[in-house]
């Protein structure tokens, strides 16, 4: 509420930004919120999630995730942070940021991974033969388990 007092006394956005060590854009947003909604517009809304999940809820979340995405109405079998967040919100009435959900996932023993996109039907030998026939290198990117990049 100190920023509201400063705005009352005629402080500029630049001055408020300097005093509270925020960007000029943040100070402008505060000032705009103050002008349109008064002091209550500057009150903190609190953390996104008002409570962390209990150990029992973490165990239940793990069980829910073990059922797979299809059990929760998702079309494919990929868990994303957004999907896990949606399941947690639906079952436990909590809201997490994607970064917070990533930390929670690590706490459960999981990790955020980006799968290599490779067809299940991929035949590396056929790829090598076709590359040789076309006069290109016979090395197949990713065939040795290394990243193709």
UniProtKB/TrEMBL annotation:
Pfam families of this UniProt entry? HTH_23, HTH_33
Which stretches make up the Winged helix-turn helix domain? Answer: 76-129
Say which domain of life the source belongs to. Answer: Bacteria
Q: Where is the composition biased (Basic and acidic residues)?
A: 118-132
Region annotated Disordered sits at 116-149
Annotated protein name in UniProt? Putative transposase
Q: Which organism is it from?
A: Actinorugispora endophytica
